[in-house]
Amino acid sequence: MTKVGKERTPHNRGWQRLPIMALLLLFLAALARAYLFPGASAAGLAARVDASLAAGGVGSRVTAVLLNFRAYDTLLECFVLLLGVMVVWSLWRPDGAESREPAAGAILASLERLLVPLMIMVGSYLLWAGSDRAGGAFQAGAILGGAGVLLLLDSSPLLKVFPKRGLVPGLCLGPLFFLSASIAAMAWGGNFLEYRSPEAALIIIALEGAAAFSIGLCLAALFGGRPPEREAGDGRDRPSRDRGEFR
Amino acid sequence: MISPSSSWLIWPIIAPLMGAVLCFLSGKPPRRTGLFFAVLTSGASLVLGWQVLARGIESYAMGAWRPPLGISLRADGAAALMVTMTAVTGLAVSIYSGGYFQSRLTGDDRDRCRLAQEQSFWPLWLLLWGALNGLFLSGDVFNIYICLELVALSSVGLTALSGKPPSLVAAMRYLLVSLLGSLSFLLGVGFFYKTCGTLELAAIISALTPTPPVIMALALVSAGLLLKTALFPFHFWLPPAHANALSPVSAILSGLVIKGTWYLFYRFWQEEILLAAVGAVPAILGGGAIAWGAFQAFSQQRLKMLVAYSTVAQIGYLFVAFPLLADPAGMGGGAFFYFAISHSFAKGAMFLAAGTFLLQMGHDRIDDLAGVRQLMPVSSFAFALGGLSLMGLPPSGGFIAKYLYVTTAIGQGRWWLALIVVLGSGLTAAYVFRAVAAILSPRLLAERPQLMVAASMQWSALALALMAMLLGIIAPLPLALMGVK
Amino acid sequence: MTISPALIYGLTGLALFVIGLAGLLLCQQLLRKILAVNVMASGVFLFLVTIAHGSGALTDPVPQAMVLTGIVVSVSSTAAALALLCRIRESADHRDLSQKKGER
């Protein structure tokens, strides 16, 4: 996969690529043949989803799949995001070169003042709308994450609204709430992750709210790329850099 | 909620996930929390293993939605065996890590970086553990995809933890290979869903037919899994990643992570029709891996590189026996899993022991390790025991596995397979002896430096090596568990 | 077989997968490799969406949910890859996976 060592000039690289290109074209042809093979499509699960929708607690089919029928996938997915933050933070070093220049400017600042409240509103609407039409926790989380990225771009003073100590608990809120609610469902005699009507709708909205908040925060933290200063970890005597940090 | 009679199927997954979040929340390096959840997870896994042995196959519908609409977990003998294996190796590695991170603190200003490493290690490791258990127990192919990504991402994070340029480059290569493998797997899942209309693993496997879309789906899934398992010739990323990581991480990667994707490959390929048709392909690649890995291992200068190349060779054994599975009456499956488990214990022990040498001596050049026996007799003994199990000397687990391989192969008239296994053992002996001879050499150290390695590190390596030996003595137990189908 | 929009989308998805694969195999620079993996992922997602519309009149929500999940996974792993890339560039001048320093 990776060529180690030898320096290649553009000339001899050209024809060396040809066999790989040819193989890839053959692969594409095989893929297309498999895809176009007649009579090879099964019915899928659409009918089953519709039949169980009434017991699922929400009107939207995709939300019902995500938060109820296949809620276990969604639970693990929240963990994937959290894991992303863990990995990015574990790679950060205090002595690393600061490469990102702040994109400060009057236009960005006024854009933030205009857009961020709007984005929070649209995010909340998407969260609410998710129960019976397109929308849901991930869409809402993505918009919230976008707002966070916008604020991080010039480390806006608006970030001070969010307490620095609240960052890690905020990231964990979604996965932790999801896990606890699912274990609580077992305490009430159900299976793990079992939410049935009539309470289902309420639980799902609460879960989605927590998940959307954490997803948004995770996305912004992935962009920020730097952990909050820890008590025992990287030190306090480091020259303070304000850029790209949650404050 | 939790009683001895209810199914413990979900706890080996939930306990480490919960532990990972709590460790991440902690402001200090969460050694106690991490160890507590490691013990909890192993306990839950052992209870599950015992339940499967006593009561047969366990299954659990997540959210009480049955497949194909919902996701179900399923533990048959093979899955329970893998979860139990993970519990034993995982617990030993966790105890070792506690001592490892403590012993590395030297009181100078590099401690800050080491504390940060430990702070990242525990949540990553517990998440990886939970994801591996999820992988073994899942009954749904898309869910398996998510578990695969969790495993890959946390392994990459752990690989890069040491922060040295070679390990960073190795982690990058590992990440790209993993992503390629996962995407290939996901495209295969798409083809399966299109043709079968379900994501349930059991339903998909029972509906395998030789039509182009199904063949393409299986090819994509298998290629993805082989890449991630690092079967020869896809092994190029493995040795630098495993050898340059922190020592507990090396043990985790070689002992456990490899087995996850190998196990899935086995799940997809256990159908007899399939094995009769193309079962020779994994066997030939496996044979290549045994030869090439052993050759490379023999010519390494660094101990951890030698052990890492040995993993390449041992992966070959995990695949070489696929044709044996075609006969359901034979012991092919038992031999397979026996090999996987004893490799996990033996290789884990060897990496843990190599880690103690590296920490104490500050290097792991094989030729300069003479005299280490005098300083660390316990880990030297652990390394040698692990090596004996790899070679397949009685009474080790490796011996039972190879014995089952050879007798099954001869019983089925596949002489060439028996020959590969026996020749491979000779090659293994060659490189193991090279390392063991250096470590056990009677030469004395000129001066006796202060021992930096915590006792818990040496003893956990030895415990794991003894488990590999014990496997040969308690053989009926794992084989009975394996028989639960 | 008639040419339907779903068919075109499906083939485009497969083509994107192969194009991304070519990029991953042939490009030397790490950033390009990471982008190539993203192209592959987009191809798979497009293919999955096509499956949702492929059979019958009803759109199937299960592949749609799979795509949503897949996107999140892809965001996470891309972020990790980029962070790793930054770290590699900080520690040495590696911009590809070769072990030599300052090759380009």
Give the N-terminus to C-terminus distance of chain C in angstroms.
50 Å
Let me know the largest β-sheet of chain B: 2 strands, antiparallel
As a whole number of angstroms, the C-alpha radius of gyration of chain B is 21 Å
CATH topology of chain C: Helix Hairpins
Q: Which percent band covers the strand fraction of chain B?
A: under 5%
Low-confidence stretches of chain B: none
Whole-number mean pLDDT of chain B: 90
Radius of gyration of chain C: 17 Å
- Any guess at the CATH architecture of chain C? Orthogonal Bundle
SSE pattern of chain B:
HHEEHHHHHHHHHHHHHHHHHH
Shape of chain C: elongated
Question: What is the SS-derived class of chain B?
Answer: mainly alpha
Q: What percentage of amino acids of chain C are in beta strands?
A: under 5%
From the N-terminal CA to the C-terminal CA of chain B, the straight-line distance is: 27 Å
Spatial sequence of strands, sheet with the most strands of chain B: 1-2
Q: Which spans of chain C have pLDDT < 50 for at least 5 consecutive residues?
A: 100-104
How many β-strand runs of chain B? 2
Largest sheet of chain C: none
Description:
The complex is a heterotrimer of chains A (247), B (485) and C (104). Chain A is mainly α and 247 residues long. Chain A has a domain of 163 residues. In chain A, 63% of the residues lie in helices and 0% in strands. In chain A, helix 2 packs across helix 3, helix 3 packs across helix 4 and helix 4 runs parallel beside helix 8. In chain B, strands 1-2 form a two-stranded antiparallel sheet. Chain C is mainly α. Chain C has one domain: Helix Hairpins, CATH 1.10.287.3510. The longest helix of chain C has 31 residues. The C terminus of chain C is likely disordered. The chains are: A mainly alpha (247), B mainly alpha (485), C mainly alpha (104). Chains in contact: A-B, A-C, B-C. Chains A and B meet through helix 1, helix 2, helix 4 and helix 7 of A and helix 1, helix 4, helix 5, helix 6 and helix 8 of B.
Which characteristics define this entry?
heterotrimer; A: 247 residues; mainly alpha; 0% strand; globular; disordered N terminus; disordered C terminus; C: 104 residues; Helix Hairpins; 3 helices; elongated
Condensed summary:
Chain A is mainly alpha-helical and 247 residues long. Chain A is 63% helix and 0% strand.
